[in-house]
Automatic annotation (TrEMBL):
Keywords from the named record: Nucleotide-binding
Top-level taxonomy: Eukaryota, Fungi, Dikarya, Basidiomycota, Agaricomycotina
Biological process according to GO: Mo-molybdopterin cofactor biosynthetic process
GO molecular function: nucleotide binding
Cellular component terms (Gene Ontology): molybdopterin adenylyltransferase complex
InterPro entries reported for this sequence: Beta-grasp_dom_sf (IPR012675), MOCS2A (IPR044672), Mopterin_synth/thiamin_S_b (IPR016155), ThiS/MoaD-like (IPR003749)
Source organism of this protein record: Favolaschia claudopus
Protein name: Molybdopterin synthase sulfur carrier subunit
Length: 91
């Protein structure tokens, strides 16, 4: 993994947005960061959002409007739009 820093755009929906009080933010990450490691970085960025870990563990990821089935198989290179897709319940 490279030590270069790159920027990604994060979109938060539903419970994730409520937990951190944002609907979007720009985040600097190490180039080549596996998508599966992004949750840890976000939890460390938002320490007051105590429910964030649980929310992220139950959520899916979307990168550039494409759902990601295997977050460990995708490395973020910079410039991506990453969305936290929370589970939806309805009735």
């Amino acid at each position: 993994m490279s030590t270069d820093q790159v920027e990604i755009s994060l979109l938060y929906f539903a419970a994730a947005s409520t937990a951190i009080g944002l609907s979007q933010e720009l985040v600097r990450i190490p180039a080549g960061l596996p998508l599966s490691s992004l949750g840890d970085l976000l939890v460390s960025r938002h320490p007051k959002a105590t429910a964030l870990r649980k929310i992220l563990d139950g959520s899916k990821w979307s990168v550039d409007a494409e759902m990601v089935d295997d977050p460990s198989g995708l490395e973020l290179k910079g410039g991506e739009e990453v969305a936290v897709i929370c589970p939806v319940s309805g009735g």
